[in-house]
Structure of Gag-Pol polyprotein:
Amino acid sequence: MWMDDRPPTRLFESVSADYFHVADRTYVVYVDRLSSWSYVITCSRTAFADHLVRELRHLFSMIGVPTILRTDGGPQFASSTVRRFLYRWEVRHEMSSPTYARANGHAEAAVKTIKKLIMAATTSRQLDDDAFERGLLELRNTPRASGRSAAQVLFRHPLRSGVPTHHRAFAPEWQRAADECDARADNLRQQTKQRHDQLVHFMAYTSAPGLMSRTTLQAYGIAQARWSELVTGENTS
């Protein structure tokens, strides 16, 4: 199956899911690819597919129906019950394979984190527990590589938790500053890509036979952090 690697632009537009075991219990992690906001489902010991469908239906009604659901293609997700449910809700089910193992790496990373939390927070392996829920709350408040937490991406501010936080952390100006930083970074990425594409086109153009015109192209010099001009001489052939 063709895998859509385009980054999501809306919350819960594209999600990943994976099941895992801790002791004798089975869980499913359901995680948004844009914000990395995670939900954890405790699976039934019997009728796994029916239980999974009920939980997915609840999530869809609460946070929206995704366009894409990525899984590892295990029997739990590939069952006819789950496939029919996703078809009815018009969700594209992308399953990873041995030849494309990284396709569900996002969910696998979430599994590692959630598994550690379950093992550290509760001995009963029950998720309706203060320690686990507090840990999950702090996980959602923890900044990621982008500098923002899942809570900040989803709600535009951190969530109140048991960790003391200065009231200014909830102020809207912090979010505006982060938005401006994101916009500048995105603009720079777009400009860099545009200049790269122009350079590729330029090099192909100047190598063409019979070129008579003088062409000027601006390219971004990363090392010098400034724009430089690439100028070709006239073809005298």
Notes: Residues 183-231 form one domain. The longest helix spans residues 172-206. The chain has two domains: 14-170, 183-231.
